[in-house]
Specification:
single chain; 283 residues; alpha+beta; Jelly Rolls; seven-stranded antiparallel sheet; six-stranded antiparallel sheet; 2 helices; 30% helix; elongated
Length: 283
């Protein structure tokens, strides 16, 4: 028969293992042999415990490394985010500018005209069988009943429906701004002033208005007009409210996505660097 004894083994504050050791008490076993057997079994139990401690330590180190990697990733991401926000907040949003010249409208006639992504179309309130269209004019350099101009232009007259009008907007639905325009009375010489109102619709549902008046008094040419700051940006569409008008060289602006592109490029570089680091670590 043997007697069961418990010997506590303490390993550097991490694992406390109680190994169960059987001490043989036969008549032939001396005290030193019994102690040696107990010691060997204790050492064996301690070694097993130390192996488990090493495994636990390695797992702890692995988790610690993973945690450090996550922290490193978070720091890099936050750094890129801070840089991006700084660039966006510190930079003035650039604008791309275009000019509708109507140079391709010399022979145009209809209710829809497109140029540089801008769409001019006739609106007929309530429908109806009678409506007016837009018409292009070639360059006029000699006597005529329409304005003089060295390049083609476009005009509109309410002749068949006193309620229709022209609206302009970008074909992609983006917002835009208006900078300047050349206007004239389509009748030449112009005997009376013509009031031409531009009513802009903004993204929040509000509207802005800018009204220009041609001089009359026998005018036969176009004049330059500049839009006020309300038309600088954020327009979704613009209604041209006037019984008649002739138009040329409409200058418009659209937000340029340079800052957004910069952020996307920065994100791409960040991803590329991360991928390179992972490949290097695997090698």
């Amino acid at each position: 028969m043997g007697k069961k004894h418990n010997f506590p083994v303490l390993l550097s504050g991490h694992i406390q293992l109680t190994s169960t050791i059987w001490r043989e008490t036969t008549r032939t076993a001396c005290g030193s042999c019994t102690f040696t057997m107990m010691y060997n079994r204790a050492v064996s139990a301690k070694s097993r415990a130390r192996g488990r401690w090493i495994l636990h330590s390695n797992r702890h180190k692995t988790k610690s490394n993973e945690f450090m990697k996550k922290q490193s990733f978070a720091r890099q991401f936050l750094l890129c985010l801070v840089v991006a926000v700084t660039l966006l907040s510190g930079a003035t949003l650039a604008k791309a500018q275009g000019t509708i010249t109507f140079n391709n409208a010399a022979l145009f006639s209809g209710t829809n005209y497109y140029e540089l992504g801008m769409w001019f179309h006739v609106i007929i309130p309530g429908g109806g069988n009678y409506y007016d269209g837009m018409a292009g004019s070639p360059a006029i350099t000699g006597p005529s009943n329409v304005p003089y101009n060295s390049t083609p232009y476009i005009m509109f007259l309410q002749q068949y429906n006193p309620y229709d009008y022209v609206v302009l907007s970008l074909t992609n639905g983006y917002s835009f701004g208006l900078t300047s325009i050349q206007l004239a009375d389509p009748n030449s010489p112009s005997l009376t002033p013509v009031s031409i109102s531009f009513i802009g619709s903004l993204g929040d549902g509000s509207t802005v208005t800018n009204t220009f008046v041609t001089p009359g008094g026998g005018a036969t040419t176009f004049l330059n007009y500049s839009f006020n700051s309300d038309f600088a940006s954020g327009l979704t569409s613009v209604k041209i409210d006037a019984p008649r008008w002739a138009m040329d060289n409409l200058v418009f602006t659209v937000p340029e996505p340079s800052a957004v592109s910069l952020v996307l490029v920065g994100g791409g570089i960040f991803g590329y660097v991360r991928t390179r680091k992972r490949h290097s670590a695997r090698k």
